[in-house]
Amino acid sequence: TCDTGDQQTTAAVHLKAAAATIVERLKDVATFEGEDAVFECRLSQETAQEAQWFLGDVPLQSNEMNEIRVQGTRHSLILRKVTLEDCGSISFKVGQHSSAA
């Protein structure tokens, strides 16, 4: 606000949060059948944006076979007791950014 005594004007500042980017990308994982496979990536900031993991084109959810964790900026996917059918591309997407291994 600017006040000159007999006149006054007011303006507002509006900020738009920057979108999170992927700063630590996924790495390929090789393991034995029956063991767990762990994938991790890190974002530039904590975000309310929807993040999603995929096996091929299939979206993954946390369940008895897949554990999805978020700890601050670190996002993790644990594939429990992998089988040969789990071989393929794992991808992580947030906003317009993605990483695959």
Automatic annotation (TrEMBL):
The record ties this protein, via InterPro entries, to: Ig-like_dom_sf (IPR036179), Ig-like_fold (IPR013783), Ig_I-set (IPR013098), Obscurin/Obscurin-like_Reg (IPR052385)
Residue span(s) of domain Immunoglobulin I-set: 21-94
Subcellular location field: Cytoplasm
Gene Ontology CC entries for this record:
cytoplasm
Any idea which UniProt keywords this protein has?
Cytoplasm, Disulfide bond, Phosphoprotein
Please give the chief subcellular localization of this protein: cytoplasm
Q: What is this protein called?
A: OBSCN protein
Q: From which organism does this entry originate?
A: Chaetops frenatus (Rufous rock-jumper)
Q: What is the lineage of its organism?
A: Eukaryota, Metazoa, Chordata, Craniata, Vertebrata
Q: Which gene encodes it?
A: Obscn_2
